[in-house]
Amino acid sequence: IDKFLYLTICIYSFYFIGNLFAFKIGNVININNQLLTSSESIFIGIFLFGSYTFIYNFFYKIDSYQFFILFIILILILSFTSKEFKINSRHLKYIFFFTIVSFPITLTMDAGYDAGLYHVGHQKLIREEKIIFGISNLHNVLGFASFYEYLAAPTWINGNLKNLPNMQIIFYISFFLFLYERSKNNKKESLYVLLILISLPFWFRYASIKWGLVDFPFGIVFLLSVFVSFLILREKNYLNIKHFFSILIILNCLTFFLKPGGFVIGALSTSIIFFILNKKIYSFKELFKVLTFPFIIVCLWIVRGFINTSCFLYPFSFTCIDTN
What we know:
By secondary structure, the chain is an all-alpha fold. It has helices at residues 2-29, 38-56, 65-80, 89-102, 104-107, 115-128, 147-152, 164-185, 190-206, 215-234, 238-258, 265-278, 284-309. It is globular, with a radius of gyration of 19 Å.
């Protein structure tokens, strides 16, 4: 019961954070709150919380009361300045249903081969220390530290790892919830959703659900990035395109943050940017406003990687600088 309660609190927290953020600055970054789905809110919340965690770790360890107190204060400030903010009760029902159906998977989820190799070890380090200069010198695998560590590390309770499967299952829930909401909101997209579902055995073969692996979350955001890009290319309504583009940027950031090789998704982002500029959907000024916040977060993530490894994109040697 306690594991289910913790999972429910986590996923609703991500939803609330993402939904509140979209409500507060949705007009600036062209997120349409009328189009915003519960799954999109969760992905935004994941992006925001993980970003807060790794930025906080620049200055102090994660395992501290200050970490949670500061985060709660920021959320309260955002809440009190958003007086007309309302929660969509339908979204809450969707999330609860998918959580109940998916929760049993956490009870039998294995750790995976990378858990003991570096994922758990790195989570322990960022819980107990602020950012460590040259951490890859301790062991080269620590240079591969993922955004996933910054999402999972705060879920430890007194050194107990029993809640780590929750983060994996939140991606699982968000993925199927996303597909459900897309097919429900637009019947024309049901066929594409069906094709994705048919291809899932292939994806699960190479990206199994293990709480110590990042392959499955990475596969989800990569696949959804491609899917949302397709929606942008086929959509005729410019307001919808702007909304999808903002969601795409969040998914692209998560793809890059979860695995170093995810930077290749930038080629897709660049293609979509050229497409929307060519169609005059955005002016350069509007596009600048949409991209400024995620660009800052990406830059900070690259700085974090450089501090850890002296490489801007570890382990690609051409991005490394000799700091001896």
